What we know:
Elements lengths: L1 H27 L3 E4 L2 E6 L3 H14 L3 E7 L3 E7 L5 E10 L2 E8 L5 H16 L1
Antiparallel strand pairs: 1-2, 2-6, 3-4, 4-5, 5-6
Helix pairs in contact: 2-3
Amino acid sequence: MKQRLLSLLLLTGLAFTLGACTHVREATSDAVAWVRDALQTTVDAPLERTVKATTSALKALQFSAVTTRADAIYGIVTAKTARDETIEITITSVTPVQTRLDIRVGAFGDRPVSQRILTEIQQHLRK
């Protein structure tokens, strides 16, 4: 009985350890996920730079009514498509040099448009 309990505890500890390593790897790689009708990814850039790149990207894609609000931890950039769908990009500081982007287009999400916006943001971050 004690041996089974010890084995179970070791396996549980191993699962938490491996799970944590996987999470760190995903947070620092170029992983892109589709979560709750929004595209999510982490970029290697500080919040202020990411907010500026996002604003510039939406303007370069000729979306209308681009507005930006930001503080030291969060930023929100919104715009409208030609079909009058709302684009909302939430930018969250993860570390001083990493930010998370949540890109939602319309009420139910639009993957191709979200991906195109992300590509444009990444191009502006490289400048």
